[in-house]
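Please predict the structure of the following assembly.
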Amino acid sequence: MTVFSFSFLLSAISLIFVLFAIYKKRLELKFSLFWIFSCIGMMVISLNHNLLDKISELLNVSYPPSLLFLSGFLFTLGVVFQLTQVITKLDKKLTRLTQEFSILEEKIKKRI
Amino acid sequence: MKQKILVIVPAFNEEQALPYTLEALKSELDNNIDILVINDGSSDNTGKVAEQKEFVNVIHLPFNMGIGAAMQTGYYYAFKNDYDIAVQFDADGQHPANQIKYLVNDIIENKADMVIGSRFIEKTEYRGSTNRRLGIYYFFLLLRILTGQSFTDPTSGFRAVNRNIISEFAKEYPSDYPEVEVLISLQKKGFFLKEKSVNMKSRQGGKSSITPIKSIYYMVKVTISIMMTAIVRGIK
C-alpha cells in the first residue's frame, strides 16, 4: 500500500464518519461543510498522482507525497480557523444573553 | 426637563471598598441621578453589600464576565431605560463622587459626546507606580500619532458619555481593557471626546486586577486593536 492509497482510504473513512455524524444529528451540517470538502479534496489529491506531481514540480518539491501532508495540514488549519470563528460568534451571543438575563432579573426583583 | 443620568459602578470582589464608594455617591444623588452596581460574578459579598444600600440598583451577572462585558451591561441597561447620560465610576474608591456633576456638565451643555476625567492635565494628588505611568504615556503617544488628539489619561475609567455613545456601546464594546480602545474608535466615528482635570485618590481597598503577565497582554492586545482601528478608519 502506498501513501497515496492509504491517504485515500483514510479520507474516505473520515468522510463516511462525518456523514454518519450528520445523519445521527451529532454534527450540524452548517459546521461540517468544511469537513466534507476537506475529505473530498484529500481524496481527489490522493487519487491523482499526476496532479500532485505537477503541483510539486511547480512548487519545487522533490518528494511529492510531502505535499499530501501539507494539504492535510492546511485543511486542518482551515477547520480550526472556522471553529475559532464559531466560538467568537457564540461568545458574543452568550454575552448578550447573559446581559439580557441579568437586566431582566433585576427588573423582576424590583417588582416583587 | 432635567436629563436622566445613570452612574454605572462595575464591581468584582470589592466588598471592602464598595460601601464607602456608594456612600460617597449617595451624597451626590439628585432625583435625576440613579446608581447601578454591576456585580460581575464576585465570589465575595460584593453583591450583598450592594443590595444593602437601598438607594442603588444592582445587577448580578451569574459569572465573572470581565470589565468589558460588565460595563456593557450597564450601557445596555442605560440604553433600554432611556438614560441621557451614563457615567462610569470605579468601585474601588479612586474616583471622586463630588466631581461627577463637573464631568457631566459639558455633556448637558452639548460641548462633548464623551468627557474623560484625567489625572494628568494638572498636577494632582494621584501617584501611580512608574510602570503604570510609563504604560499610560505609551498609549498617550500612540493615540496622539494615530488620532492627532492628546489624551493625557487614556486609561482613566472615570468618564461620562451622552445618549449617542450609550447606544453605540450597547451594541459594541470591547470585552477586555476597553478604556483605551474605545477612544480611537469613537474619535474615528466622528464623536467629540474631551478631557477634564480630576483629582483622584489611590485605591481604597482591594487589589489591582493587573498582574505583570496581564499587563503585557494588555499592552499587546490594545496596541493591535488600536492599530487595526487606525488602519480600517484611516490615520488622521
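Chain A touches chain B at residues 95, 98-99, 101-103, 105-106, 110 (CB under 8 Å). Residues 65-111 of chain A form the longest helix (47 residues).
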